Amino acid sequence: MDDSRKFPFRSTFNSWVTIPGIIVILAVVIACAAFPGSSGYYLNEAKQWITKSWGWLFILGVSCFVIFLLLLCVSKLGDIRLGDDDEEPEYPFLSWIAMLFAAGMGIGLMYFGVAEPISHYALPLDPNLSQGARAETAMLNTFFHWGIHAWAIYGVLGLALAYFGFRYHLPLTVRSGFYPLLKNRLDGALGRIIDITALCCTIFGITTTLGFGALQLGAGLKQIGFISHIDMPQLIVIIIVSISFSILSAISGVGKGVRHLSEINLLLALGLLLFVLLAGPSMMIMSDFTQNLGEYIHNIIPLSFRTFAYDPENEGWFTSWTVVYWAWWIAWAPFVGMFIAKISRGRTIREFVLGVLFVPTLFNLLWMTIFGNSAIWVDLQTNGSISAISGETEALLFAFLNHLPLGSVTSFISVVIIALFFVTSADSGIFVINTIASYGKSGFPKWQSIFWGASLALLAIVLLYSGGLGALQAMTMVMALPFLVVMIVLCFCLWDGLLVDNGYFSRGLSVCTSYWTGSLWKERLHSMSRKPDLVNARKFIREVAVPAFEELADEMKKYGVEATVEYDSESLLPKAEFIIKQDSIRNFKYGIDCEIHNVSDFAIKNDSMPQVDSEVVYVPMSYFEDGRTGYPVRYMKKDEIIVDILRQYDRFTKLVSDKKHKLFIFDTED
């Protein structure tokens, strides 16, 4: 059914997803606008309950995402391509790496680049630490929050979107990742609920980021003298103006909008990064980076599973930082995941995992070191002037820049960078929200971009009004918990899909088909048309396999080789063996028994396979004395079985003649 027909105007919306999403947005807007105090209180209560009761699930789930991706990377499943087997990557390697590098940027880096290290440094978990240990611990915790775990969250969702979108040619939406579980019910109620959850999670995740951006933009504009103070009216104006530019960028087209803005902003951000590095103690900062990286690698396992279960005094730190961060990354997963999925077509899973986990992570860690360690260095040089205002997180970046040369210029440039990040984040967010709400369709009408942009602005305003930054974080937490469950199930679906994929594409032709020639094709077709039941399996072993064994045994006697034939026709599953007994080494054995295989519902119901009418089939399979896995032989003729035995016997004699195989062929029963 085309859900878009339910709208009285042209739309790509899937009404089963969009309407519930709009209802959730309206409910939050009305509640926060009409009852700001109560809304803020209940949002905070919900946040406290989630972090206290389910914080462990965030920690365990995200750590499992890292392990899951690394397992895929080192396994043979890493060879699977995100697209058709012969598909080339859509973008050259260096261009792809550059885009992943750009994806690591955002308002968060500008907001927390100075704020988080200084916050951990000013208020350490252990107040008895020395000054150097405080700085080291502050950077370690910062690295943990901005390291591989964040990109594992994005990577899991991005990989699922890319795999099922490009390999199975399904719509690029979250519900497609559940294809192995839902199959033909993908468009049913459960699939819709998954996309509704993804839609709401993305909306509130982006709203939180825009709230950070608005607060820091206000602090920056105050710093450069554009405004005299920051209050709610100023924040409302900042949000409306910034979102308006985002909408203009969105309706101008991705190519003309976000791409050009992203390129400009990336150059400005890299320029600011380089300036901070050169203006501060450059060699010391790079030395700090080396040690920070080593400490991060050394401590990554205990950090990954740290819940402060035995340290309740620091539980508040844990819930306010790590759990909130993981929830924020999870809320952003559909946004960033869809971006990296779109640019990764044609890559192998191994390339995807290595690129997504390590390239942006390395840049994030470099950024945090340059800004964080430089800020700590400035704080030491100025008798704690930065850490003294650690509670004013949105103003810390500008306070830090004021202590470097050209403070006014760099503060102005920072405001421009934050504004552009605000615009590009909202622009890209509008595109992703549109895609989820439209079930992967493209070519959105302009009014839809305007609608979602206005919705983001309205949400950011009412959440800031009802409880400031805490309300934004609480709303993100509320939406991130169910989506975390969605992502955990998604991992199992992805694993299942990859195993089936590997089995399907790695399966070659049956060994017995190597003997086929065109002269007997009618006989082959007749054999294939027989029902693979127990009656025909017995008949094959009795009338084809046993006569082949006996004829070969008789022929071998002429050459002094004694072979015996054993045939068990009385057991439930028949079997026959051709055996050449050996002295002190393992016997040569070529056996054929009957294996029971389950049959798919599709095969039973398939009219083009009338011979398959049961839930199980009985397949004559070869087996050997040395335990090697055999292969189906039911289509072989008598002469072909004889040739196959001789091939295996030739292999056996060559192995016996080689000294290095003595240990394996030695008869362990003697």
Architecture blueprint of SSEs:
Blueprint (H helix, E strand, L loop, with lengths): L14 H20 L1 H39 L18 H11 L3 H16 L8 H16 L1 H20 L11 H4 L6 H35 L8 H20 L6 H22 L2 H23 L10 H28 L6 H33 L14 H6 L5 H31 L8 H61 L14 H9 L4 H24 L6 E5 L6 E6 L7 E11 L2 H5 L10 E9 L13 H20 L4 H4 L5
Antiparallel strand pairs: 1-2, 2-3, 3-4
Helix pairs in contact: 1-2, 1-8, 1-16, 2-6, 2-12, 2-13, 2-16, 3-13, 4-5, 4-13, 5-11, 5-13, 6-12, 6-13, 6-16, 8-9, 8-12, 8-15, 8-16, 9-15, 9-16, 10-15, 11-13, 12-15, 12-16, 15-16, 18-20
Tell me what you see in this structure.
Keywords: Cell membrane, Membrane, Transmembrane, Transmembrane helix, Transport. Its main location: membrane. It holds the Pfam family BCCT. It is a multi-pass membrane protein. The chain has 670 residues and is mainly alpha-helical. The chain folds into 2 domains: 3-501, Up-down Bundle (Amino acid/polyamine transporter I); 517-665, no CATH class. Helices cover 67% and strands 5% of the residues. Strands 1-2-3-4 form a 4-stranded antiparallel β-sheet, covered by helices on one side. Strand 1 (564-568) and strand 2 (575-580) form a beta hairpin. Helix 4 (107-122) packs across helix 13 (349-381) and helix 8 packs across helix 12 (315-342). It is elongated, with a radius of gyration of 32 Å. 44% of the residues are buried.
